[in-house]
Amino acid sequence: MKLWIRNLFKDFLALTILLSLFYFAGMKYLDLVRGKIRGAGDPIGIVSDLTYYPKRQFRGEDYTFNLSHEDDLYEGDLISSDSFSSIHMNLVDGTDISLEHGSSVILNLGENTIYFSGTISALSTQAREEPLRLIDLDNPDSDPIILSQSTEITLSTDESGLFSMSVLAGLVTRGEAVIKENEQFILSSTGDAQVNRLNYVLDYPPNNSHWISFEETQKIPFSWSEPNPGESRSLWIALDTSFEHIIYRKDDLDRLDFELDLLPGDYFWRVGNEEMGDFSSTGKFKITENLPLTTVLPTDEAELTYRDQLPGQNFAWRGTEEAAWWELELSRFPDMTGRILSERTGYNQIQIHDIEEGEYWWRITAHYDNKENVNSLRSGEPQKLTVTHLQVALPPQLITPEHDEEVTPIAFSEGIRFSWKGDPEIFRYRIILSSTPDMSDIVIDEISTRNYLNLAGNVLPGAYYWQVQPLPEGDSEVQNSEIRSLLCREKNQSLELVYPQQDEAVILGEGTNLVFRWKSSEKGNYRFRLWQVNEGADKLISNTTVAREENSQYIGQEGDYLWQVDLLDDKNRVLLEGIRLPFSLRHPLLPPQLISPLPASKISLIGEESLPLSWTNVKGADSYTGRLYYEESPEALLSFTDQKVPLTSVDISLLKAGDYRMELSSNREDEGKGFPTESSLSSSPFTIEDIVIYAAPGLESPRPGYITNRLDLLREGLNISWTSAYAFPSYEVVLKQKDSGILLMRRVTNQYNYVINDIYPDDYLIEVRGMDSKGGFSPIAQSDVSVLAVEPLAPVTMIKPERGDTVDMSHIDHVEFQWEQVEEGEKYNIALYDIRGNALMSLDNYSKMSYIFSDLSKLDVGEFIFTVEAVKDYNEIGIVRTSPETRISFTITLDTIGEAPVILSPKIQYAD
C-alpha cells in the first residue's frame, strides 16, 4: 500500500510537470507571435522601410516570421531578404543597415558586431561610441571590417568567396588594408590582404541616373578618377553588365573625361586597363526619349466665336511623356507679361471656362521631378487666341485639303481627311465631293456632326471639287463654304534599297559613318530605321525622318543589322512601307602591334624564366598568328597560329643575346559572309643585350616530408631557412594548401629565414624565391610539411563505482566517485545525470581524483550516469587538451522498509 501511494504521488508530480511544460510552451509561442522573446530585453532598432516581406528569426529559435514596417528589432535577430524583398533598419545607436535581395545580417549590437551575407549597406554615425565590426557570415573567422564614426559603405559578396567594398564616406580598416572615402576594393574572405584595388572610380554620370533626350541623341559627359593618370585607359559602354554587347569602346584615352551622344535605352559603363586587368565598378544609367512639347489645341491664330454665352475652351498638347506636371499660362500680351491665369495639371489637356471677348496668348511649360540634367521645358513661341462675339452665324471655313492640293489615299482606314471651322452653334454639316466645279456630278455625299470627316474607300485617281454646307436648326439661313479643288493621285509609289544590299558584308573603318542609300519614285520624307540583331529580340538603334534618299549613320559595334526605309506623305503618314534588309558589319582587320618588348627597344633578361611577348588586342580578331626570328635566320625560333589571347612567352633557355624580329597578323573566322580572314603582317625588331638566369634558393629547413604537430608549432614555431648563390635584396615566402593549391600566406623578407607560429593541422607546401630590385624572380624552392593535430589525453579510468555497479543507499548518506590520475591531466570535468538526461551536478576544472555527492534530495531509486574527462590547459599558447569522456552507468537501490519515511531533507535521510 505504501509503495502504491508513493507511485501515485510520482505520477501526479509527473502529470503536473507535463502540464506546466505545455503551458509554458504555449506562452512562449504567444510571445514569439507578438515578437517579444523572453529575455530579449529592450528593442535595439526598428524597421524603417521594406519591400515585400523580409524574414526575422529570433536568437536561439527555429521560428521564422515576416517583418512589417515599424517592427521592433532585438539583440541576436537574424534578418534575411529573399530574391524579391529588401529592408532598411535604423538601430538605436545611430547605425543604419540596408539589405538588398538575397542577403542577411545577425544583429549583435551589444558586441558592436554585425554578421552579414550578400549585399549590405551600413551607415555608422557619430552617435556610436565604439567602432562597428562587420564579419562575413560565411567566413566568421575572417578579419572583421572596422567602421570608424560617420562611415558609410556598401558590401557585396559573391559565390567565389570574394566581396567588393565601396566606401562612400569615412574610413574603413580590415587587417592591414585601409580604405578611405570614395575608394573601392575587392577583398578576399580570408582577410589575408587586399586582392585588387579598383584604381578607377566612376564619378559621372551618377549610378542609376535618368537622362531625358530631347533630340535624336543625348550628349552625356563621362568622368572618373584614378591614382595614375598617365596610364593607358579605355572606356566601355554596353547594353549588359557582362559587356558582351558593347555599343561603344574608346581605347587609349588621353584624358579623364569624355562626351558621347547616345540613343535612348539602358546602358552600363566602365573604365579600366584591360591589359592589367584593372577595371572600375560598373555604372548604370538610363536615357528616355522625350517627344518635343508641341501645342495642339487651339492652333496659333485660332478664333473662338460665340453668340449667346461664353464657351469653354480646351487646351491640349502632346509630348513630354516624362514630365511630372504641366503649367498653362494665359496672358493678354505676346510677351506673356501680366498673366491673367496660371493653371497646374497632371494631364496633357485642360479646359478653361468663361474666357471673355478679346485677344490672348498662351503657352505650356513641362516640369520634371528628380530627373538628371532637366528642370523644365517650355513649348515654342506663345500661341495667339482670339475670342469674338458674333451676331450671326458664319459660313464654314475650309482647312484641309488646301486648294489644288495633290493627295494620295493611304492604304489603311484613315483615308483623306477633310476639315473645316464651323459655327459653335451648328452641329450638323453636309460634305459634298464632285467631279465637276458646279458640284452637279456628286461622287460622295456625307453628313458629319463634327468639323472633320475622313473619306476612305474607292476614291479613284482624278480631279475633284468639295464643299461643306451647314445644316442649322430651325429656319435660320447660313451660307455654304467656298468650293475647293483637289487632285487624287495614283498609289503606284516604288522604293528600292540600294546600299547595303541584302546579306552584304560591309567593312567600315572605326569612327566612320555608314551611308545608306535608296531610290524612290516619290520625292519627299522618308522614315529610316536600323536594328541590331540580338538573341531574343532585335534592338532598334536608329529611328529618324530624312528628306533625301540617303542617311549617314554611326555604327560603333561589329555585328548583324537590319535596315528599312518607309515613304511618308506630307503629314508623315506611311504611304509605302519598305522591306527590311539584313547586312553584316565588320571593322577592317588590322595587324596587331607588338607591345612587349617595345619595338626597337634594347632589353636585359636578368633572373627571368621566360620572355613575355604581348601585342595589341585587335577588334574583331578571333585569333593571332606569330613568328619570332633570331637575327637573319630563316627558321622561326617561335611559331604559333590560332593564339586566342594577345600574349605568349618564350623559355629563356632558348634565347641568347642578339637581334630579334617579331611578325604578327590577325585572323578572323569567315562565318560564310565574305569578310577577309587574315590581316596584313606587322614586323617589330628588338634587341636582347644580356641574359642572366637565376638559380632557386637552397631550402635548408624544413626538409621535404617534415612532420610536426600543432602543439610544438605553437611552442617553437616552424622555422623556414634557406641559402642563395645570388644576393637578392628580398625573398618571397609563400604558404599553400597542398591538395588544393589555395594561397594561404605571402610574405616578403630581406632575411634568410622566416618563422610561422600557427597554422592548423593539414598538409602544406612552402615556396621560397628571390626577388630582384626590378621585380624579377628566381626559380622556386619548394618543400612539403605536414602539421598533425594535438593528441588527446588518455581516457580516465574509474575506480568506483564501476560501470554497471549497484549502490545500496539503505545505510549511507552519500555516493562517492573515485578515478585514477591521468598522465599530464591537471583538472577534471565531472557531471552526474539521471536516466532522463537531467543534470544533477556539473563541475569543471575539478582538481581532485574523488568526489562525494551528498545532496540526496536529487537521488532516488533507479539508474544514473556519471561522466568524467581530464583537462590540460596550455595557457601560454592558448591550447586545451582533453581526454575522451569516460561515461559509466550505475544503479541506486533501497531495501524495502516497514513504514513510510518522514519527509526527506538534507539532514533527515532514509529511515532504518
What does this protein structure show overall?
It is a single chain. With 912 residues, the protein is mainly beta. Strands 4-1-6-7-10-13-14-17-18 form a nine-stranded antiparallel β-sheet, with no helix packed on it. Strands 3-2-5-8-9-11-12-15-16 form a nine-stranded mixed β-sheet, with no helix packed on it. Strands 20, 22, 23, 25, 26 and 27 form a six-stranded mixed β-sheet that branches. It contains two helices and 78 strands.
Short description:
With 912 residues, the chain is mainly beta. The chain has two helices and 78 strands. It has a nine-stranded antiparallel beta sheet, with no helix packed on it. The protein has a nine-stranded mixed beta sheet with strand order 3-2-5-8-9-11-12-15-16, with no helix packed on it. Strands 20, 22, 23, 25, 26 and 27 form a six-stranded mixed beta sheet that branches.
Assign the structural class, choosing from mainly alpha, mainly beta, alpha/beta, alpha+beta, or little secondary structure. Answer: mainly beta
**Distance separating the two termini:** 19 Å
Radius of gyration: 44 Å
Helix content: under 10%
Strand residue percentage? over 45%
Shape: flat
**Averaged pLDDT:** 81
Largest sheet: 9 strands, antiparallel
Q: What are the low-pLDDT stretches, counting only 5+ consecutive residues below 50?
A: 1-6, 27-39, 191-196
Supply the number of helical segments: 2
How many beta-strand segments? 78
Lateral arrangement of strands in the main beta sheet: 4-1-6-7-10-13-14-17-18
